[in-house]
Design a protein that fits this description.
The complex is a heterodimer of chains A (408) and B (391).
Chain A: E1 25-29, E2 41-47, E3 50-57, H1 65-68, H2 78-82, H3 89-104, H4 110-139, H5 142-163, E4 172-173, E5 176-177, H6 185-207, H7 211-217, H8 225-231, H9 236-239, H10 247-250, H11 271-294, H12 313-318, H13 320-332, E6 339-347, E7 350-358, E8 364-370, H14 372-377, H15 380-384, H16 389-399, H17 403-407
Antiparallel strand pairs in A: 1-2, 2-3, 4-5, 6-7, 7-8
Chain B: H1 2-37, H2 53-63, H3 74-90, E1 98-103, E2 106-110, H4 118-139, H5 143-174, H6 179-184, H7 201-214, H8 226-229, H9 239-264, H10 281-298, H11 305-322, H12 326-353, H13 361-390
Helix pairs in contact in B: 1-2, 1-9, 1-12, 2-9, 3-4, 3-9, 4-5, 5-7, 5-13, 7-9, 7-13, 9-12, 10-11
Classes of the chains: A alpha+beta (408), B mainly alpha (391).
Chain lengths: 408, 391
């Protein structure tokens, strides 16, 4: 079956005759398919159940967020970043805030930095839990999914406690945090982080030594690391191929250099290695959260920069200047000096970067995101050609992409 | 002769009614067990503890729009679910649930019909069931359904071999093809069961693995692997036609579990003779269940338990009392043991579903032909040799 020649439908594959005399079958997988994690469309050319060619088709979740940045004030754009990678909203908040703060030359107080580290690591746990759950359910292990979502629920409750929102938190603002950390957050986070390592053991009990799981994941989805680098693959996928690349270590931001953690690396470069890397990352993230919680420095939670950071409510009611600043920031924003900045952070999926060009006004001239999902997703064809349909599911599951992050 | 027809008709209605109810409630049990494995409550809204959920499901499925897509092969598309459910329900007709009983002066077997080749009949019928799935996949004219149907036919034909070979071993021991006689040879103590005859647990394990594959259950549920093939062979089916496939799957599960019980676990025979008190086991079980439920109802952890638990407790106590009536004991006790053993196997099915991931297609076929088939073959040869030497 050939695809209709409709403008906008970019990807097409034609059924072809193989050298063996058999005709191939073109299977359209997605954009509405249980395992394409959103709206990825894969065109598969099959010989029996073996994939001859695979053509991914993206763009079904294109929202024009990058363009929308240009009409938003700098502080308004924080809410846009939540919606790019909806499984790791705080990582995106952080990337944006760090980029703009670099442009402004703003000094962030230690408490805000540590709080940011703690919450971003919780975000990493959140994202990895969703990944593990959906990856496991793709391969047929149903229960792991619900165990993962039980822990994710705890994390979302913590987010809700901090920001009033479960997913679209927008808790990091330019210059610090949106709100004062709530009373009693330590107990809540401690309660979670005390049980979490044992929960990771539970997932591992179900999967790590399971022969069926190993049979489904080992040796699947491999391709040379040189090609990975060419395609721009980053994050856990690259680390599972043996390259220790992690922005938290290589280009520390938000005082990550003050934390003690390991970057897990495997060399097998298959779906199983990616699983191992992410499981180990969960343990390391839990370690970072504990360190951040125990060593949280006292002090202010937002920068002392009245032009940029909104004043406290009580000051607004007593001080003239505070009221004026509040009015000015809310109505016309704050001016960011001319220049361009490239800020890299390590999102759960890989290297996330914000490239911001300021033109001296309160709105960015241009914002570009280097999103990890896009790079990782490019490897689809290389990974699945010559394998079986079941391996496609395992392979795209191991990439851990978010279509919002891919299409922007 | 007239009484034979009347009795047969009555038996057919009773067995059919019971089977349909069990099919519906097996679904409820599965959802509940899986839910509790996955730390969630499961169906809870329709009736107390979701007990009326099966009824709601049936009403929903019946009232759904019955869609026949325009691009299907109509004849085969309509015949496929019919074939699947018929073949699945047919095999229950030769399965015995208990010994001869006396009702109102008439003696009858707790079985619809006793074929002296009952085992072969079930094997034949279950092979016919593959047609339902293969035709559904092909006639739907949908690529996912086609792949599901192909996978299914290949899988079921492959696993039928080790299944038959595993069944042959206990048949050699019991030296009969009649399911009723098979049970009678296992009478007495626990070690008379075919499972405990020498190394027959090997046959049992092979049988169970092949049975999982035959019924398309996790970890062999590739034909309907949702995450790969959307819904597999029944992608294009809706309403009662979909329900037919669904019921066929559960009916097959029940048949296979019954077969396991009859072949290996002594059928309706109690683990030890009634002279040593095996007749009081159901009484004790139901009485303890009743007492616990009533006690929990009186000391409720949740408010609604005060109202929902005591009625269950009373029902359990009544059931316990019924098992003490001498007149009913001869019929109820075998039935209890049969249901208990079948239930245990069914629970295994559900438990595995909550635990294991899914095989890949080539691994599944490799496992059948490279591992299971040779092992089943060797097992059969060894069993034959052992019987020839020792008897």
């Amino acid at each position: 079956m050939s695809e209709p020649d409709v403008p906008g439908v970019a990807a097409t594959l034609e059924s072809e005759e193989l050298s063996s005399g058999r005709r191939t079958l073109v299977l359209n997988m997605g954009p509405q398919h249980p395992s394409t994690h959103g709206v990825l469309r894969l065109l598969l050319e099959l010989d029996g159940e073996t994939i001859v060619r695979c053509q991914p088709d993206i763009g079904f979740l294109h929202t024009g967020i990058e363009k929308e940045f240009e009409v938003k004030l700098y502080q308004q754009a924080v809410t846009l970043t939540d919606r790019v990678d909806y499984l790791a909203p705080l990582s995106n908040n952080l990337g944006w805030c760090l980029a703009v703060e670099k442009l402004l030359g703003l000094e962030i107080p230690p408490q805000a930095q540590w709080m940011r580290v703690m919450l971003t690591e919780l975000t990493r746990l959140n994202s990895h839990l969703v990944w593990l759950g959906t990856h496991a359910i793709d391969i047929g292990a149903m229960s792991v999914f619900l165990y993962c979502f039980r822990e994710r629920e705890d994390i979302l409750r913590i987010f809700e406690m901090f920001s009033g929102q479960r997913m679209m938190t927008s808790y990091f603002r330019i210059g610090g945090l949106a709100l004062e950390p709530p009373r009693g957050w330590q107990e809540r986070v401690k309660k979670f982080i005390d049980v979490f390592p044992s929960r990771v053991d539970e997932y591992e009990d179900l999967l790590t030594n399971n022969q069926i799981w190993i049979g489904r994941t080992r040796g699947v989805g491999t391709f040379p690391i040189e090609d990975m680098l060419d395609l721009g693959v980053t994050g856990p996928m690259l680390r599972a191929a043996g390259l220790k690349m992690d922005a938290r270590k290589d280009a520390p931001y938000s005082s990550y250099d003050k934390f003690d953690f390991e970057v897990p690396v495997r060399t097998e470069n298959d779906v199983y290695a990616r699983y191992q890397v992410r499981i180990e990352e969960m343990r390391q993230s839990a370690r970072i959260v504990r360190q951040a919680m125990d060593g949280m420095p006292p002090g202010p939670w937002k920068a002392d920069s009245p032009h940029v950071v909104l004043p406290d409510r009580d000051k607004m009611k007593t001080q003239m200047e505070a009221l004026i600043y509040h009015f000015k920031i809310v109505t016309e924003g704050f001016r960011v000096p001319e220049g361009e900045v490239y800020q890299v952070i390590e999102s759960p999926r890989g290297e996330l970067a914000y490239y911001v060009v300021g033109d001296g006004t309160a709105r960015p001239y241009r914002v570009h995101m280097r999103t990890p999902s896009f790079g990782n997703l490019q490897s689809t064809s290389r990974m699945v050609e010559g394998t079986l349909i079941a391996d496609v599911i395992a392979a795209i599951g191991s990439m851990d992409f978010v279509l919002g992050d891919t299409d922007r | 002769m007239d009484s034979f027809i009347v009795i047969s008709l009555i038996k057919i209605f009773v067995v059919f009614g019971a089977l349909m109810t069990i099919l519906a409630y097996l679904q409820w049990v599965e959802r509940k067990v899986i839910a509790h494995i996955q730390v969630r409550p499961g169906p809870y809204r329709v009736g107390p503890h979701g007990l009326l959920q099966p009824l709601a499901d049936v009403i929903k499925l019946i009232t759904k729009e019955d869609l026949v897509p325009p691009y299907v092969n109509k004849v085969l598309y309509l015949a496929a679910p019919f074939l699947a459910i018929t073949m699945a329900l047919l095999s229950i007709s030769v399965i015995p649930f208990g010994p001869k009983i006396q009702v109102a002066g008439y003696q009858t077997w707790m079985q619809l019909t006793d074929l002296n080749f009952g085992v072969l009949f079930i094997l034949g019928i279950s092979s016919m069931g593959v047609y339902g799935i293969a035709l559904a996949g092909w006639s739907s004219n949908n690529k996912y359904a086609l792949l599901g149907g192909l996978r299914s036919s290949a899988q079921m034909i492959s696993y039928e071999l080790p299944l038959s070979l595993a069944i042959a071993a206990p048949l050699l021991i019991s030296n009969t093809l009649s399911l009723r006689k098979l049970v009678e040879t296992q009478d007495g103590w626990l070690w008379n069961w075919n499972l405990f005859h020498g190394f027959q647990y090997v046959s049992f394990v092979i049988f169970i693995i092949a049975a999982f594959a035959e019924t398309n259950r996790v970890p062999f549920d590739l034909p309907e692997a949702e995450n790969e093939l959307v819904a597999g062979f029944h992608t294009e089916y809706s309403s009662m036609k979909f329900a037919s496939f669904f019921m066929a799957e559960y009916a097959n599960m029940i048949t296979v579990s019954c077969m396991a019980v009859l072949l290996f676990l002594g059928g309706w025979v109690a683990p030890w003779p009634a002279a040593y008190g095996s007749g009081y086991v159901p009484v004790v079980i139901f009485a303890v269940a009743g007492v616990i439920t009533i006690w929990r109802g009186l000391n409720p952890r949740r408010k609604r338990d005060r109202y929902t638990f005591p009625p269950f407790g009373v029902v359990f106590l009544i059931v316990a009392a019924v098992f003490l009536v001498p007149l009913l004991q001869s019929a109820l006790l075998p039935l209890f043991w049969f249901c208990a053993k079948t239930g245990a196997i069914l629970f295994l099915f559900i438990w595995i579903r909550g635990t294991l991931p899914r095989f890949r297609y080539d691994q599944l076929m490799g496992f059948a032909w490279k591992v299971l088939f040779p092992v089943a073959m060797l097992n059969l040869l060894a069993t034959g040799l052992a019987i020839a030497v020792f008897s």
